[in-house]
Amino acid sequence: MAASDVPAGGMSDAMMSNNSSLNLPTFVLTGIPGVEEKNAWMAFLLFLLCVSVLLGNSLLLFVIKTDRSLHEPMYIFLSILACSDLGLSMSTFPTMLSVYWFDSKDIRFNACITQMFFIHAFQVLESGILVAMALDRLVAIREPLRYRTLFPNTVVAKIGVAAAVRCISVCFPVPFLIKRLRFCRSRRLSHTYCLHPDVMKLACADIEVNVLYGLILLILTLGFDVAIILASYVVILKTVLAIASRQGRFKALNTCVSHVCAILIFYVPMIGVSLLHRYGKHLSPLVHRLMANIYTVVPPLLNPIVYSMKTQQIRQRMYNVFPKKQHRILW
């Protein structure tokens, strides 16, 4: 067949197909289905949540930094946790607001994998810091007289650096594993941000390596961290039950309440989203969207509230931040 006999449409389609395989794809983010007419209200609510997260975590960091009496391992770990929450929020809120506020749902490939890297990295960092805080509580309760010797600030700094190096190392291959894939199917994502399991499902290539690495990553980071936290609290409970005084037992357990709340706030939504991705395909898309939003919004929002309410030192320092005249007005 001569070139002149080829239909113009056929040539155009072939060229578009070749170009689409060579050019980097653009993905389409998805909001909550069925509430498109209320996107403005959703955007306003997300904006308020974003401001609350920024103010809460920034205030927590300010109080810990300015008060030298809080320069102890538990509060230093808490400040790293607040930084991680801020990083996670800044990685997700821009695209969430762009979808609901400006109805801008397209995200370029490089922006998508960059966002993906930071979301997963900050999650691994937060998980590592929760482990460090569990070990801190274990040493404080089991060896109270040797606590400052076993947990000096130099050790805390090394643990923080190790947690940061771990999160970067394990998440560094993820963008490259996605970049090697070819996308020729629907490019509509399930959420208002990019996640590795969500993006890889859209590929029209073999994703066994991605699935295997994701499983290994989940086991060696989150699975390993949960095991250490559980083991730490088994030892803590044994130590607390061995205390003769009922008041002493209550006081020891009370120092762990905030940390236990932070663990539940972080791991329950994460495990829920992971289970939905693997076993909840038959469920309504609304369930997936709501869990995904809870997964990224709730931990950064609630952690400062929990620690300010349950930790007397932080609550008192936050109270002292505001002028006394405002206190009288509030009362």
UniProtKB/TrEMBL annotation:
Membrane topology: Multi-pass membrane protein
Transmembrane segments: 41-64, 76-102, 114-135, 155-178, 226-244, 256-278, 290-309
Keyword entries, A-Z: G-protein coupled receptor, Membrane, Olfaction, Receptor, Sensory transduction, Transducer, Transmembrane, Transmembrane helix
Gene Ontology CC terms: plasma membrane
Start and end residues of each G-protein coupled receptors family 1 profile domain: 56-307
Gene3D superfamilies linked to this entry: Rhodopsin 7-helix transmembrane proteins
One GO term (biological process): cellular response to lipid
Superkingdom of source: Eukaryota
InterPro entries noted in UniProt: GPCR_Rhodpsn, GPCR_Rhodpsn_7TM, Olfact_rcpt, OR51/52/56-like
Molecular functions (GO terms): G protein-coupled receptor activity; olfactory receptor activity
UniProt KW Transcription keyword: no
Presence of keyword ATP-binding: no
Record's subcellular location: Membrane
Alphabetized PANTHER family for the sequence: OLFACTORY RECEPTOR 51H1, OLFACTORY RECEPTOR 56B1-RELATED
Protein name: Olfactory receptor 51H1-like
Species this chain originates from: Pantherophis guttatus
Gene: LOC117676453
